[in-house]
Amino acid sequence: MNFGRLYVIATNVFREVVRDRILFMLGFYIIILATAIYFLPEFAAATEDKMFLDFALAAMNLLGLVVAVFVGTGLINKEIEKRTVLVLIAKPISRAELLVGKYLGLLSLLAVLTTAMTAITLVFLQLGQVPYSIASILISAFFLFLQLSLMTAVAITLGVFTSSLLATVLTFAVYLMGNITQDILQLGRLGRKHGIETLTQALYLVLPDLSRLDVKNDAVYGLAALPNPTTLISNVGYGLLYTLMLLAIAILIFAQREF
User: Fold this and answer.
1) Does residue 88 or residue 134 have the better pLDDT?
2) Which residue has the higher pLDDT, 250 or 23?
3) Is the pLDDT of residue 91 over 70?
4) What does the pLDDT read at residue 62?
5) Distance of CA 88 to CAs 3, 15, 76, 85, 209, Å?
6) Rg of the chain's alpha carbons, rounded to an integer?
7) Average confidence (pLDDT) over 221-231
8) Contacts of residue 75, Cβ cutoff 8 Å, sequence gap at least 6
9) Among positive and negative, which fits the CA dihedral 132, 136, 58, 44?
10) How distant is the alpha carbon of residue 143 from its chain centre?
11) CA geometry: angle 57, 60, 66, nearest 5 deg
12) Residues 152, 71: Cα–Cα separation, whole Å
């Protein structure tokens, strides 16, 4: 792959998306946190600090997911539907470079969005005099970014061979099921039926285990509640490996498509 062409594609995607969504998302996030920090003390007088931090991290996750899914599913599909993909691949750009470049562009946007929302969260925590562990919050934000990176790869992979609407629905389904894969596996074992257990094991192996990339609840209780460093490193490797596998599948499917 030519890194110069990847940079150009990624930069174009970043510029195109940042104008439309990132400022709106950040403004919406600020409004959410301002509302939460004002009203939470009235509902939870003793635990409002932990509830606010938990709420802020959950809001970061949700807004980042919305961007990753709705933008990711349309990155390639939009080019196919508008037939502009014919112009792009007619130039000295391979299909793999086009897909990876668009992925990196959206990934850059998500990195900026996650960083900005983390900074906003820290400002609100400081203004509200809410006790927190900055290290645990930064670790949580990093794992959130890894999770969004994986979900972006899911969105692009599904968007390569389905419509944008169907890819969006399927990506949200993967996200929801990916957060309960371990529960699905345990449910199959409790059922004591070979067919159900085989199905749940297959789902566990195929679907991403997103719970391994979710440490926001642990961040609420500080560094002491976080998994040990070996587990964290293992989970990072899992997220990266799964993301690379999805991108390889997306490239393979995109290379076989005819327009």
Assistant:
1) 134
2) 250
3) no
4) 93
5) 16, 18, 11, 5, 35
6) 20
7) 69
8) 13, 102, 103, 106, 156, 159
9) negative
10) 9
11) 145
12) 9
- Residue 221 backbone dihedrals phi, psi, to 5 degrees: -105, 10
Q: Which amino acid is at 118?
A: T
- The CA–CA distances, whole Å, from 258 to 31, 125, 140, 201, 255 equal 45, 52, 41, 35, 8
Give the whole-angstrom CA distance, residue 125 versus residue 229: 26
What is the Cα–Cα distance from 71 to 155, expressed in whole angstroms? 8
Task: Copy the structure tokens of residue 20.
Answer: 């439309």
Q: Mind listing the pLDDT tens digit for each residue in 28-75? A: 899 998 888 877 766 655 566 678 888 888 899 999 999 999 988 888
Phi, psi of 66 (to 5 degrees): -60, -45
pLDDT above 80 for 191 = no
Label residue 23 by pLDDT band (50, 70, 90): confident
| Residue 22 structure tokens | 């990132």
Q: How do the domains of the chain map onto residue ranges?
A: 3-256
* Residue with more model confidence, 226 or 119: 119
CB 197 within 8 A of CB 189: yes
Per the CB < 8 A criterion, the answer to whether 172 and 69 are in contact is yes
Nearest to 158 by CA among 209, 207, 97, 109: 207
Reported confidence tier of residue 226, pLDDT bands at 50, 70, 90:
low
CB atoms within 10 A of CB 189: 11
How far apart CA 11 and CA 77 sit, in angstroms, is: 19
Structure tokens at 142: 């990093």
Average pLDDT over all residues of the chain: 82
- Separation of alpha carbons 152 and 171, rounded Å: 9
